[in-house]
Amino acid sequence: MNNNENFGTFKIPRQFKNQGTFLKIFKWKSLIYTLVGGIVGFFGYKILALLDCVIAGMVFMTIFAAIGFVLGTLKIPEENFKSGGDDIDVYLYRMFMHIFKKRIYINKSDMEIDE
Predict the structure, then answer these.
(1) What is the model's pTM?
(2) 3-17, pLDDT tens digit by residue?
(3) What residue ranges do the domains of the chain occupy?
(4) Strand blocks (E) in 5-114
(5) Is 24 left (phi over 0), alpha (psi -120 to 50) or beta?
(6) Other residues' Cβ atoms within 10 Å of the Cβ of residue 26
(7) What is the pLDDT of residue 101?
(8) Which has fewest Cβ within 10 Å: 22, 36, 66, 76?
């Protein structure tokens, strides 16, 4: 008896959209960024709560959580920037590294090469 006779053909299930999302709006990266922003905002909330400004502390915490969500979710538009399609956090990281990392650019067309 041939072992191939026991095998059947089955349809492969279709790909589900948004498999890497949580609660339909959060990707895992944006969820982590939102939580980190919320934790930073929570410390600001506690400081403002000590000063009897609870409402301002809640607004402070909400703003920082929203900033974390935006950094983790949105992408740079492709038609406006050279790095279009990249996430905003990756773009900001590259921008800060370009500003703070010292580089020397050399134009090799003017140099003579000795062989």
Answers:
(1) 0.62
(2) 556 666 666 555 555
(3) 24-73, 76-104
(4) 21-22, 26-27
(5) left
(6) 18
(7) 83
(8) 22
